[in-house]
Design a protein that fits this description.
The chain has about 400 residues and is of the alpha/beta class. About 40% of the residues lie in helices and about 15% in strands.
């Protein structure tokens, strides 16, 4: 059975205002299209917004995850653990560094890493001398994981926490912004067009550690150092720079940063609107055999996604509903197929049955349209189409 069709109502869409356009045009008319003042201004604004000391802008959240892992010293012989319900980048970043990957199962109601599963896996790993060096908890759909519990386990078992907040800028955990790194070394955000705010493509890493920020800033630009006080050789002149490690061209442009700065001004109202739309879905789904992902009580979700789980659904039923919605012009998506069941990861030895909650989630989950500007009548149509499919 094919799950392909041509959606008309997308699951996500960027919101661009005249102010956004004016901000980009201003940079286009300036001397700097890249490596100029807009990048540092955007970094400082994001750091201030989330309550972190430092922020490093890059060309994607994948790049941010990669350089964050490198800055944390992840390498061959180390392990990185993450959720199986995430985009593949959350795991691939460890492979880029030569590390080994493993996964921690999720809570079925939230889609977030299960603290009970994590604690049990850590206890066994301590006995087997296979503890991870880095854990990447994923704030799925915009809801923060239980970071206090994860932080306590990190202190007990000695691993480092790298938050994948790609979905979660503008969200809060226990009344504080996601990205303040109270319980982690680094947090990563994404600014892809379907995310909460956008720079077209782009990402950001926040941290409270000056050395980590410095390492990431150098890694995003070929590993180059321009501070003469840190040179390893006497400079021949004021033009000299040194490449002191192998880095990458992961820079974000001033054009992107200008768009991000403008969008950041609307972040709070965007999150309010996304929560309003999610609540609209909740009310309309009250009598349907579907369940939206739960948001933990101590979390304000940024609501990147509206994910439903079909109750007691078979694989055929799941695909039937997915196909039916797309055939009706509703651009549903799947976030996400379990990473450990991707062919690349199966080739490493991962197999069906290893993470049963994640696999059960994938048999039931469908992401519905949700973005600023989505109309109530469009949400009502989505609900009507789902109801019709269950009545068939």
């Amino acid at each position: 059975m094919s799950c392909e069709s041509r959606p008309f109502l997308p699951y996500g869409r960027q919101s661009i205002t005249e102010s956004d356009i004016a901000a980009v045009v201003e940079v286009l008319r300036s001397p700097f299209l890249t490596q100029g003042p807009a990048v540092s201004a955007f970094e400082q604004a994001v750091a201030a917004k989330v309550g972190a000391r430092y922020s490093v802008g890059v060309n994607s959240a994948t790049s941010a995850l990669h350089i964050a892992c490198l800055a944390l010293g992840l390498g061959p012989g180390d392990q990185l653990w993450t959720s199986p319900i995430t985009f593949v980048a959350s795991a691939n970043c460890g492979l880029y560094c030569g590390a080994t990957i493993d996964f921690v199962d999720i809570e079925s109601t939230t889609g977030l890493i299960s603290i009970a599963a994590l604690a049990a896996k850590l206890e066994k790993a301590e006995q087997d001398n296979t503890l991870p060096k880095v854990l990447v908890p994923v704030h799925l759909a915009g809801s923060s994981c239980d970071m206090a519990a994860i932080g306590a386990l990190a202190d007990r078992y000695g691993f480092v926490v790298l938050e994948d907040g790609s979905h979660a800028i503008g969200g809060h955990y226990r009344g504080e912004p996601v990205g303040n790194c109270r319980y982690s070394a680094i947090t990563v955000f994404s600014f892809h067009p379907v995310k909460i705010i956008t720079t077209g493509e782009g990402g950001m890493a926040t941290t409270n550690n000056q050395l980590l920020a410095q390492r990431m800033a150098e890694l995003r630009s070929h590993g180059i150092v321009r501070d003469s006080e840190r040179f390893e050789q006497p400079p021949a002149g004021p033009w000299v720079y040194e490449q002191q490690q192998l880095g990458f061209n992961y820079r974000i442009t001033d054009i992107q940063a200008a768009l991000g700065l403008s969008q950041l001004l609307r972040l709070d109202e965007i999150v309010v609107e996304r929560n309003r739309l999610l609540q609209c879905y909740r009310e309309l789904f009250a009598d349907l055999p579907v369940q939206l992902l739960e948001v933990p009580e101590d979390v304000l979700s940024s609501v990147h996604l509206a994910v439903i789980q079909l109750q007691q659904a078979s694989a055929d039923r799941h695909c039937q509903v997915f196909e039916g919605l797309r055939a009706a012009g509703i651009g549903v998506q799947m976030h996400y197929s379990p990473v450990h069941l991707q062919p690349y990861y199966r080739a490493m030895g991962f197999a069906q049955g290893q993470f049963p909650e994640a696999e059960a989630y994938a048999r039931r989950a469908i992401s519905l349209p949700l973005f600023p500007g989505l109309k109530t009548r469009e949400i009502m149509n989505v609900t009507h189409q789902i109801k019709s499919l269950f009545n068939d």
